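Quick one, T. Sequence first:
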Amino acid sequence: MNAYHALAASYDRLTNDVDYAGVVEFYEEILRCEDLVPKTAVDLACGTGSVAALLAEKGLQVIGVDMSEDMLTVAYDKTAQMDNPPYFVCQRLEKLRLPEKVDLAVCALDSINYILKPSDCEKALSRVFQALKPGGIFIFDVNTPFKLRAMDGQIFLDEDEDVFCLWRGEFDEDSNILTYAMDLFQRNGELWERSFEEHQEYAYTQEQLVGFLEKAGFVDICVYADRKMNPPTQQELRIYLKARKGIVK
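Structure tokens:
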């Protein structure tokens, strides 16, 4: 089963503790430092559209891109009644092609880790570069190798009254990939339906990612600790990266 097929309907309930507003506030802090006031944005791997909706509420014209039709269906239903709803497109990041270039690109919640081949990650970052206007900013976060290795052998549980999710992590040093098998139980009337999904994340180092960004043509690259305007520590669980598309003079 494709990742997020069964999970899409319950994703927002299982992630109701995610501080999406805090993520967007950190984007804004970076943008203030970069002296950029964007009018258009793309939310890459947008999932159910939580970040896209917050950006749209701030007046931006937003495109949400995701490879999962199931997640995009939830995103569309969630935002359809907004005064300024995002426009959603089903695409893989390594094949990203927008109808027009944007001022800002963001990619939240370690979605880049889901690109399991470094060559595809390199292609995706190059596509983002092409999607930005000159002077545009790209901001994204990743789970660090330190975090993904620490999840090996761990068992995690998420639940509410209508959904129960149990998942187990296994990190493979040869492939540099964390695999987590997810058993999902969702209430359907008086019955519970069980489904299974397998998710995988590649452990990219910040040096790899900075190299990919530089090769794509980005400049002014910075690496931050988790939602802090200072460099990450060696034991950081999540890092943010910012890069700018240079202005040709």
